[in-house]
Design a protein that fits this description.
459 residues, mainly alpha, MgtE N-terminal fold, CBS-domain, Tetracycline Repressor, domain 2, 3-stranded mixed beta sheet, 66% helix, globular
Amino acid sequence: MGDATDDIGDEGPHLPDADIRLVEGALDAQDCDTARAALADMSALEIADLLGKLSAQDRGDILADYPDLLPPEAFTEMDPELRRAALTALGPERVAAIVAALESDDALDMLRNLETDLQDEALKRLSATLRAQIETGLAFPEDSAGRLMQRDFVAVPQFWTVGKTIDYLRAAADTLPQDFSDVFVITPTYRVVGEVPAGRLLRARRTEKVEALARPAPHPIPATMDQEEVAHLFRRKDLLSAPVVDEDERLIGVITIDDVVDVIHEEAAEDILRLAGVEAEGDLYRAALGTSAVRFRWLFVNLLTAIAASAVIGVFEDALQKVVALAILMPIVASMGGNAGGQALAVAVQALATKQISAANRWRIIGKEALVGLVNGVAFAVIMGAVAAWWFADPRLGAIIAAAMVANLVAAGLAGAGVPILLARLGADPAVASTVVMTTVTDIVGFAAFLGLAVLVMG
């Protein structure tokens, strides 16, 4: 089986092709012993990787014939769309068993994207306590701290001593979370007054009060806070865990660093895909028809913007008919503008996502990107102007494309940085619409500058 250290990327262990072929061969030959032995030797991460790479038929065979060899943790590592399909195939009884074996935050994540009927049937099969926890979590807004938090945490009254706390932790070991780094200190009304790192607790004398050891609570997180804000808070404060409180500031959960790492990865992947007009979740495993429908919307918007850019070209139809060289050189200006704008756009969207842009510096950043466009525009104007003048033996063409190049790269810098900042100010997601708007601006400015100058200079 694949070694857990044979990583190809940052998603954890990836199975060698030989192991995947072994399982495929066993399934095709209906060799249950070999298939069962292979699956039993895999970790949860490796099984998740295997299920993602098998054909739909082989995946279905494993889900149907070997459900007992699929650890619950494997489903938490699967692509959301693939996980939804797998859980649907397993049915409510098996889904309930998987959910019951997971930590509360993973259990909630497992159920939240299922069809309502399957979700309801699975919830009915859970214990009353777990069902209440999950239903409470589902009531919080999507992508909020309430959805992200674990309901299992360690909290003790402020008047307890270290000795009493340690005795409690030992006695209640079976009901406490498996791993925790902090013990929260609370009032009788469940208000957080501080937290004690587990290491500090173990080193203290048994007679000391936990309240005396506690450091102030690190900004208790409202359950309605967006998960991106939670990630920024953890990064700024270097937190390992943080308490989550309800509207009455009572402790209801905890968010740990491993949850935040998942959020950072998820948000980064989401922004990258949205820049291309692709839905973040499950596109790789969605049916072709469904993927086509999702992508059609943005392709249609792109079509409209392309028509707008073509309309600008149509205004200069006579000039194009007179000088064929214009049609040859014109795509160069637009292409350079689009690529330069894409660079500025990537920097701006990333800075917005990490909260590096504010009212204090946004104009400075836009100005800087415009200046970068000017510097690169002048450099490429010299290069392309000389090439065009030599190519067509006409210095006027060289001067025209040089001037257009400068104008379009400056516009690209302004649009690349300014458009996402403006969209963010308007409350829109800059990762979704910025590319279309920026491309339209650079196309229109590039075509208008190049052909407009050609009309003025060449008549």
